[in-house]
């Protein structure tokens, strides 16, 4: 397989770090961005100029655009952009602070939108490219206490679902990666809003107590991060681009159950739907 050049956000830890490592090991070039790119120094020592790094907070839209421009200027053609940066938040809707709400939307939805908009002129100029968005099975299911996380992921998928057809004529493919729970530090980095006593005994409160007891809820998750990373990399070589990539048996089973339930609810309202026609 010919080597490729990738641009990755959130490359310093978790799946972003593992994807970066695996790409470099197979001989690809990587433009790795992170808020603290210095943690990638060991990879720079090992792989030299095949690793390009930049400091980036993806919620800073101007900086995001500047880094994208610099990466394409320095590296020339970039075949794959992997939008990976993100994190989760926990709290009942009423418990969420305004800052936590804004962060979830900015990080998980608005930043990927601006990233895609920034790379599209380059993809069009080179007559092709692949945009891979790290999503989640949580874009199809929902959990009490994670409303803003789900909202941000459902939102970015709705955006990308629409854009797929817009950019297909330019040879640009888009894939939404929808893993289940992966064994990473994701669970240890959750943003947890202050609790309200009114919700303490409800579903959101029970989830909060569980997280407080367990700590990193993803520490013993069923998803193998190295296998997930390998599947993401392999998806970039698939033609046409897979629209969605479910990873993990937990993701497959949870999403299938949710979709079947949604279809059943839709079918139950078929007569009502038809009754409102002229």
From TrEMBL:
Q: Name one GO molecular function term.
A: oxidoreductase activity
> Its family?
Belongs to the short-chain dehydrogenases/reductases (SDR) family.
Give the top-rank taxon of the lineage listed in the UniProt record for this protein: Bacteria
Alphabetical keyword list: Oxidoreductase
Full protein name: SDR family oxidoreductase
By its UniProt entry, which InterPro entries does this protein fall under? NAD(P)-bd_dom_sf, SDR_fam, SDR_oxidoreductase
